[in-house]
Structures
1.
Amino acid sequence: MTAFTSIRIPPLSPRVSASTIRRLSHYLRTLEELEAAGESTISSQQLAGRGWTTAAQVRKDLSHFGSFGKRGLGYGVAELGLDRRWRVVLVGAGRIGSALFAYPRFRERGFDCVAVLDADPAKVGACWGDTRIGHVDDLERVIAEHDVDLVVLAVPATAAQDLADRAVASGARGLMNFAPIRLTVPDRVQVSDVNLVMEMEALSHALSRVRSDP
Amino acid sequence: MTAFTSIRIPPLSPRVSASTIRRLSHYLRTLEELEAAGESTISSQQLAGRGWTTAAQVRKDLSHFGSFGKRGLGYGVAELGLDRRWRVVLVGAGRIGSALFAYPRFRERGFDCVAVLDADPAKVGACWGDTRIGHVDDLERVIAEHDVDLVVLAVPATAAQDLADRAVASGARGLMNFAPIRLTVPDRVQVSDVNLVMEMEALSHALSRVRSDP
DNA sequence: TTGTGTGAATCCCTTCACAGCG
DNA sequence: CGCTGTGAAGGGATTCACACAA
């Protein structure tokens, strides 16, 4: 077991900012690359990468989890819950669902899709690789049986809230929501909204305020 | 022409925060809904929606663009570059590309896909609806001919930087990048990174620091 | 000497509170 | 009177700067 590509996070560490959490992802990828390149120590400078963030930011981020850097040397071996795997149910076997399902990096990154569900009878029963698409009526059973952590909702907006309620009631702790609506969930449940149209609009609005000096 | 679902943004307004820009998207959706419901005035409270943000935030956000609210009444008619349409080239006719292409909301929201390109000879020539998939070698020509604003890169990481360079050199002003790498581009070019694995990791890391009181 | 760890300073965004206009 | 527009206050996150450990 390689302890290299990991950073140990105490299970109940002090509340850490969302931005820090999101940067961890990048640090891990960078660690993997450098490990593959045979490096045994890594400076905050390297971890920051070119442009992603700054060395100071890296040190600040990592300092939230303890101090496992070696002064004058850099970071050597660290441990994170990367060995941890997450059980995921994908609800919605449409285009977005299939794109996610087919993306190998998800499995590499510790996300195991234990089931794919859909409401469309025409899709139920079809197979994606070894995975047979089930009916969304089975959501509760699947979540309970596989002790699912995360539910991905790649479904129409009209169905999303109802499915979210059912997923939460069955024990899901995190939702990734592709529907363009704001889900209402208990505080203990984490929701990650992915709204590509909104991203696109933000991008275009940003464009409209870029000076195109003549 | 309905001027209702719009907020006029001066072409060269003072630098506005990214968070504000992203919220505009939501305001516009809300405006549309209320317009459909026959309302003619809208309060900041309504614009905020249930939980998205606060009334004060809405007023602050909109105040960046001028003051077109009516005190004691709310907001009536406003104008934004929503009538503006954006010309988009989609590079990469894989699963993510097809999911984006098929999503009707993009067109509704002002994004016109003027071409779909791919490097795979097996895909070139196929048709998605009325759109024939072209070869990625035509990128420069397509961008120039259609005066493209935005380029969506739904391609493997290994191809992304090269395509970004070519797109920028040909006049693209904004890139939406689905590849899990950091693109290097001139300052004037806006990049919006969409990294679903990173979102998923952020979600799961957030989970691991939620107390599951025993 | 190098590069971490961290208080202090800074910057930016959000929230508050209220003056003022319709 | 209701609701906007905005200065001021507040809270976080990022950046700076440097003591200190290897």
Note: Residues 84 and 110 of chain A are 7 Å apart (CA to CA).
2.
Amino acid sequence: MDFEREFYAKPTVHVAKNLLGQILYHYTPEGMVSGKIIETEAYLQNDPACHASRGMTKRNEAMFGSPGLAYVYLIYGIYACFNIVTFKEGVGEAVLIRALEPLEGVALMQKNRQKEKLKDLCSGPAKLVQALGIGLEHNKQDLIKGFLGIKKREKIKEEDIITTTRIGIKLGADLPLRFYLKNNEFVSKK
DNA sequence: ATGATGATTAACT
DNA sequence: GTTAATCATCATG
């Protein structure tokens, strides 16, 4: 069962925590692929690391759209990262999905990634995008309908959520806006 | 084991 | 021309 738009129309940090333990799925022409979300990061509008912190541009305009849309962007020339737009229209905030635990469609993920080991399939933002067959063409897709979306799965207890600083950024690197599940082997980094 | 580097595109200075 | 919310690969200890 998909979440309603209401689920995403809340403060970004709140949504980031609530996404942990849920299922990200993509119903591709080649079959269903899905995984449990185990790591997220929040990007706030007044956060220097956020693409939207210096206003709307062609690249980041999806972040200012309705909650529940996808924001997919290209990074370092060759990789893509998948975000979920949150809070409300006109405010540029989003949650970056950093890691999944593979569930359905593992064979297809292995094919997409050219890797065998489960831990190499979805243990990083650019990796899970490849594994699920997501691309820039999914930017601004509505996750509430369509073939790409979030399914309800587990309710995570507050004490099973680890909060730390974010990864791979320069500005705002000391803010505690990264969340991941305790005791999970698939987190992207220690 | 850890650390450095190349890949390669869009947006901004 | 520089930089970026990264990853895979190569080099060294």
Note: The longest helix of chain A spans residues 12-19.
3.
Amino acid sequence: MSTTTERITSTDALTFAEALVRFAHVIDHLYVDASRAQGLTPQQANLLCLLIDEPVGMTDISELLHLGRSSLTGLVDRVERRGLVERIPDDRDGRACRIALTGDGLQRALASHANVAQRVEAMVDGMAETDREQVASAITQLLIRHRPAARSNGNRSADQR
Amino acid sequence: MSTTTERITSTDALTFAEALVRFAHVIDHLYVDASRAQGLTPQQANLLCLLIDEPVGMTDISELLHLGRSSLTGLVDRVERRGLVERIPDDRDGRACRIALTGDGLQRALASHANVAQRVEAMVDGMAETDREQVASAITQLLIRHRPAARSNGNRSADQR
DNA sequence: TATTGTTATACTCTATAACTATA
DNA sequence: TATAGTTATAGAGTATAACAATA
């Protein structure tokens, strides 16, 4: 038997769970590499990608990213210092602010997104179209079942991760 | 369209690559939670699980974990300080040492492994047996193709991360 | 009083470069 | 000289608790 995440002592039998975990690690690694290629840490890339559609408030981001608010403050500080995002005061709530991408930030976010996609595609390259579809549908269903926490709140999008 | 990793603005169409990346993030999150349940960081859990079968040398570990040797030194220091592993001098090479689990460490590694497996199983619970098998086989093949770097070296196992 | 976001503090993790002690 | 591992240093990420300003 092999360990949870690190070994493939040949092609010995893997639990379904083990296979999934390893697979996730591989994807994760691609994600880290793709982020670095853009001069970003994976967390920074994550944050930027989250902001592509529209500015988002700190509390919302911290929930989407499963991060404490204070941890997020630091993360935002660092990308703001690099000119990738801006803190925009909220008109309707003096306490709040929303984080918005700068032009540079948007560019970086899109490039990062594209880079990951490209790497994943490369990995999945030889995969049969049938397999691809089946895996996609199975995974999508899992994702849907695992994102039950859709916001009922007006103009906010549902969450993830 | 949604961002690389964070949003599902309903059930809008996801690229195959996007679905995979999100899925990986979800698994990853389970892994982090499972590790924490054992009082470990995910990196520490990773390390301990790597050592379940047998002690491993620093350089080998650093390759398996895709970590710089100096980063590993710190990681090992911290788990050693907690009594979970020991540095065992290598008889055949005065410079080298191998990292071995203590009883406590083994226990923790196994518990961690089991905990992750259980959480993943729970997530995959409702999945049809057919889907499960197909996904498993597709993923396994990807993993095999993506671990070409099998050690030709005698009694060492191939890597992963 | 509750919420939004920040500060203060303390660890863990990571990388780079320089160093030691063997080989 | 090359390799195994460590030390020094610096920055990034995270968590907890205490705090400010606004609601």
Note: The first strand of chain A starts at residue 56 and ends at 57.
4.
Amino acid sequence: MITLDDNNSNPIYEQVYDKFTELISSNILKVDEKLPSIRELAQILKINPNTIQKSYRLLEKNKYIYTLAGKGNFVAKKDQYEQSHITSIKLKLSENIRSLKISGLSNEKIIEIIKSIIEEDNL
Amino acid sequence: MITLDDNNSNPIYEQVYDKFTELISSNILKVDEKLPSIRELAQILKINPNTIQKSYRLLEKNKYIYTLAGKGNFVAKKDQYEQSHITSIKLKLSENIRSLKISGLSNEKIIEIIKSIIEEDNL
Amino acid sequence: MITLDDNNSNPIYEQVYDKFTELISSNILKVDEKLPSIRELAQILKINPNTIQKSYRLLEKNKYIYTLAGKGNFVAKKDQYEQSHITSIKLKLSENIRSLKISGLSNEKIIEIIKSIIEEDNL
Amino acid sequence: MITLDDNNSNPIYEQVYDKFTELISSNILKVDEKLPSIRELAQILKINPNTIQKSYRLLEKNKYIYTLAGKGNFVAKKDQYEQSHITSIKLKLSENIRSLKISGLSNEKIIEIIKSIIEEDNL
DNA sequence: GTGGTCTAGACCACC
DNA sequence: GTGGTCTAGACCACG
């Protein structure tokens, strides 16, 4: 379910966080579904439990999951995180588009680029 | 010309780098124009000369500027960096769009969002 | 493993870089093998950690090693750097041969010189 | 006769030195021919006379030219510099060939490479 | 304990 | 004056 990329220079806790936000946003992990326990996942990925702990705290902070002490970590309801999630992506998009404008590209040219990305991008 | 944002968690050398890529991309700094000397800029921003040097080395590596030892740092020709600059932004855009798709947004919805960003964004 | 030459006018960080490219090219340091930590090597060579870091950054830039923050620096896969490594040497050879031609040596004479170097050179 | 390359990161005095060693080695400047005066050349190249001075001192030290106080700088006899000139190039060649050996290339492969350089190189 | 960032300040080569 | 190199040492994020 989760795999790590050794050549990725991002911190491990962030990689784990990103994987889970993807799994949750795309509904592969469904509302109220239980995430793997910290110790279990740590063993599977052969990393330190503290690292998983950090990822889970971050997911909780951003409302992707909720924690029940002694029971585990569970996927939160969509509306808990969805808006903030999309808003944060919009913010990044906004910065990138600003960069393209600064480079002198016209609005039309930018939309053209975006469209080609959306269509080519078969993920 | 250049200001630092204390609240920004990015490394200082990156903030300086970003400011200059903007000034250069937007043609405010023109080809062969001299950048402030390392020491001078360090004094103005009240940071260490080594930090500026790191920014300038990064700018040089990415072909935004060229360095003449004993003379200073100068804006490079556009075609030296422009393509790689835009390509790297496209890459980031591509990742953000992928995130939106994963969140379940349709292509039409995404283009709508982009258009609203482009038009609102009056920079 | 690594020694410095006080009489060498090259910057220390370059000497360290050169030693490692040799150790890696000659397979004495093998793929994924860990390099000494920055602090450790700095202590052994009695130089500043920043200087080692500069060497390691250069090795990373040229794909000889990859860096995992908090874990260490490791030898990269051969194909990451090999081609560019040999190409850069060819470039230098080309310049030197050009110099000999300019001095009036014939092609035959040059090949003769090269052969004698290759055979004498028992490294 | 002499031109400078602004994009060349080599020190100017070295560029000037290199140009003259080429002109002298290739017999374009002939024995006992007078070099341009320091001030004259400085004006033409729009650089500081001290810089030319440094190049000429280096040429003199390496026996490419001889200086007559109050008269000028003149091309020295071939045998004054030729041997040391060629020896220094051999040294560089030797280092490059050593690098190729370390990378695992066989003697035969190296000679092959050299031959292709010599033949392609139409300078 | 690892690398990443940053400071304060020195000395050098070059112009 | 300029940038390039180097030192000594600090603080932080990460594992």
Note: Chain A touches chain C at residues 6-7, 9, 11 (CB under 8 Å).
